[in-house]
Predict the structure.
Amino acid sequence: MPFWVGLLFGQGKQVGFVLASQGEWKWASNGNPKVQVGEPVLEHGTARATGKARLTVGILDGTVKSFECPANCVASIEGFRDSADPSLRSRLMAVGKTFFSQKETLPVYAMSRGASAAQFQQAVLPLKDGQVQFAAALVRLDAGNYKIRLRQLQKNGATYNGDLTWDPPNAVSAMVSGVSPGAYELTVDSSEGIRMGAASVVVAMLPTAAKLQGELEDARRLIAAWPAETDPAAVRNFLNALILDLAQRSQ
């Protein structure tokens, strides 16, 4: 029986969810099932690793617990702080549920950096009259002409293309015909066809976009308090999970 099924039968209290897992981790209960990224973690849950491994768990109080295993070892997950904000716990639980149920829809790439000095990040992109504003996602990109693509993540995988003349702060938007609110993979290519970078984004109508971007920035401040040695994959997975969750309120 999968470890998370214990939640349905009252076998424990959820205290977090798995953000990243490297190596061979198995839960020390219910037949030793393999630890899965995104699945709920119960209070006093115990995972065992064989060989070198790394495990990162997002706790519902906004902290993370990381376990570095040089060889065979055990990771025990305790509860969250009693002072944890109930509204924060509720939001993080919702993010975790969305991540676990929809993680297969997320694109796979190691980093959100592209060619040369380009740098992309997860963001909420405002949409108005068919124009999408890209400034929040394109942290660093040389001025010029680019080909953009938005691929749906939560529906049928439809793609929408456009031409972007990028020259911030004056020119930061492009017409993308047919695009609607939701979660997308944004990719940007140079006019010569060189991939500049990619990131998971939410497209949302104004003024909803501003509210959702504010929630994303709150999450970044939360992450800033995590230990510097936190697995980058855990940070990326958390932000991508949040993107999927925010997309459900982007209409």
Remarks:
- Residues 1-10, 110-114 have pLDDT under 50 and may be disordered.
- The CA atoms of residues 24 and 49 lie 5 Å apart.
- Residues 5-105 form one domain.
